[in-house]
Amino acid sequence: MEIKEQPTRDERTKMGSIERRKQGKLELRERILHAATELLASQDYEQFSLRQVAERIGYTPTTIYLYYKDKAELLHAVLDEGFAKFEQQMHAAEASSDEPVTCLINLGQAYLSFGLTQPTYYRVMFMQRSDYMLHPLPGEIAPRIAVLTGLATSIQNAIAVGAMKPGDSEIYASLLWSMMHGIVSLAITMPQMMPPERAQAVAHEMMAMTVQGLRPLPNKTNAL
User: Fold this and answer.
1) Within 13 Å, how many C-alpha atoms sit on residue 138's CB side?
2) Cα separation, 45 vs 136, whole angstroms
3) How far apart are CA 119 and CA 203, in angstroms?
4) 187: how many CB neighbours lie within 10 A of its CB?
5) Alpha helices in the chain (DSSP H)
6) pLDDT tens digits along 61-87
7) Cα dist. 183→68, 92, 118, 144, 148 in Å?
8) Residue 218: is its pLDDT beyond 60?
């Protein structure tokens, strides 16, 4: 049996130093992303600059350029972070139930939850730079908006099993999305009038009324 040589003290010290540098770079990247997200949520993209990010975290602009070549690349990174969180919640909701209507309600709740708990990401993704949802980023096949296809799929399944009346599933999905987006947008821009508790209650009633309205009408038999 071959005996593997153990690293020397100098080698262990060197490996530890390399690991600390890697960890330090990861932590700094996270600080850059966090600062950029907050700045993008509070002002227009045209006003946003890497210099602002550097000032916010106490580094020189040169340091930021070691991680991102320009503000467009940094914006992509911010959106990547936000959509990763969003997709995780939506996919979990999509897989939460085999019953189409329950799945649809869970998707709506996941969407609302993301908007209320991640308002900064939501503002950038859906309110300020929504154009990035409609076109694939370099190296991607589908646009980011594709994550919302779970809404239409759940509606199609509900129609197939007779839980919803026949209709255009894309239109139904757009109806639900626009209403949920309206609630989240009000909660973000007018928190005094639409605090989280009220947003939850409004969304619950909205989903219940909408789902009820989309249920198939009962069959009527002619009285003899």
Assistant:
1) 4
2) 19
3) 16
4) 23
5) 9-42, 50-57, 61-65, 71-94, 100-117, 119-122, 131-134, 149-160, 169-189, 196-214
6) 898 999 898 888 888 888 888 888 998
7) 34, 22, 14, 21, 17
8) yes
| Options 1.10.357.10, 3.40.50.300, 3.40.50.720, 1.10.645.10; CATH of 78-216 | 1.10.357.10
Domain residue limits, the chain = 16-69, 78-216
112 close to 86: Cβ distance less than 8 angstroms: no
Both tokens of 192, joined, read 């005094």
Residues 6+ apart with CB under 8 A from 50: 61, 64, 65, 68, 70, 71, 74
Among candidate residues 88, 113, 110, 120, the one with its CA nearest the CA of residue 189:
120
Domain 16-69 has what CATH class?
mainly alpha
Q: Which of 67, 114, 107 is nearest to 91 (CA)?
A: 107
**For residues 224 and 207, what is the distance between their CA atoms, to the nearest angstrom?**
38
Burial class (CB in 10 A: 0-12, 13-18, 19+), 5: exposed
Q: Which residues contact 156 (CB under 8 A, 6 or more apart)?
A: 169
Distances (CA, A) of 159 to 82, 169, 198, 211: 32, 8, 31, 12
Question: Could you tell me the pTM of the whole model?
Answer: 0.79
Tokens standing for 171? 């239109």
pLDDT for 167-194, tens place per residue? 998 899 999 999 999 999 999 999 999 9
pLDDT band of residue 200 (cuts 50, 70, 90) is very high
